[in-house]
Amino acid sequence: EPEVTQTPSHQVTQMGQEVILRCVPISNHLYFYWYRQILGQKVEFLVSFYNNEISEKSEIFDDQFSVERPDGSNFTLKIRSTKLEDSAMYFCASGRIGSGDTEAFFGQGTRLTVV
Amino acid sequence: SQKIEQNSEALNIQEGKTATLTCNYTNYSPAYLQWYRQDPGRGPVFLLLIRENEKEKRKERLKVTFDTTLKQSLFHITASQPADSATYLCALMDSSYKLIFGSGTRLLVRP
């Protein structure tokens, strides 16, 4: 069964460093998302991506964040200068949404720890 | 402001009973309401969705109802099993196709 894969599963980084979280969405999906979940809190929307551009972003997704789909299969989230409060699980999701199917398929997440 | 609330942080029930979880929302007109399961340290897994013009949906031991007048969805697991223990997330999908999640209800099914 196709699945969304994320790498790495765990990333530890120093405050102020740049990190890139990687995702391979399911191949025939059209919509791509990044969510984050701070420990013990709810899953929060960061950004959605469709047709090679950002379709919507939340207030959390400030200038420190960027997304790219560099080669038609990978979907990356970059945090330019990490802060302690960026420590969280980051989930990538994809869906065929808009073609009659609306569920999102989530990866297993990257646990980002900023020290 | 828009809000999604799930009735309780935790629900503790005996194996074999029916678990009922509640999701209420305000200031939304969702096209779809979805339920996901999340296990510790894992990503959410889709379970069921219900459209705004549907009242009820079933899948095996799961049942979802959707009342757009009350702005409420109920999620039922019948004949619950210890393996059903997890956090269950209600999520609304708006017209821009983004999912907004509630904070979840942690279900514990005791053997």
Overview features:
A: 115 residues; mainly beta; seven-stranded mixed sheet; 11 strands; 0% helix; B: mainly beta; six-stranded mixed sheet; 58% strand
Any idea what the shape of chain A is? Answer: globular
Number of helices of chain A: 0
Biggest β-sheet strands, sense, barrel of chain A: 7 strands, mixed
Tally of alpha and pi helices of chain B: 0
Into which percent range does the helicity of residues of chain B fall?
A: under 10%
Please provide the count of β strands of chain B.
11
- Major protein interface: A-B, 28 and 22 residues
Beta-strand proportion of chain B: over 45%
The ordered string of helix (H) and strand (E) elements of chain A is EEEEEEEEEEE
Largest sheet of chain B: 6 strands, mixed
Structural class of the helix and strand makeup of chain A?
A: mainly beta
Report Rg of chain A: 13 Å
Strand content of chain A: over 45%
Q: How far is the first residue's CA from the last residue's CA of chain B?
A: 41 Å
What features would you describe in this structure?
The complex is a heterodimer of chains A (115) and B (111). Chain A has no helices and eleven strands. Chain A has strands spanning 5-7, 10-13, 19-24, 31-37, 44-50, 53-57, 65-68, 75-79, 88-95, 105-106, 110-114. In chain A, the strands form two sheets. In chain A, strands 2, 4, 5, 6, 9, 10 and 11 form a seven-stranded mixed sheet that branches. In chain A, strands 1-3-8-7 form a four-stranded antiparallel sheet, with no helix packed on it. Chain B is mostly beta strands and 111 residues long. Helices cover 0% and strands 58% of the residues of chain B. Chain B has no helices and eleven strands. In chain B, the strands form two sheets. In chain B, strands 2, 4, 5, 9, 10 and 11 form a six-stranded mixed sheet that branches. A five-stranded antiparallel sheet of chain B has the order 1-3-8-7-6, with no helix packed on it. In chain B, a hairpin with a 4-residue loop joins strand 7 and strand 8. The interface between A and B is medium-sized, with 28 and 22 residues.
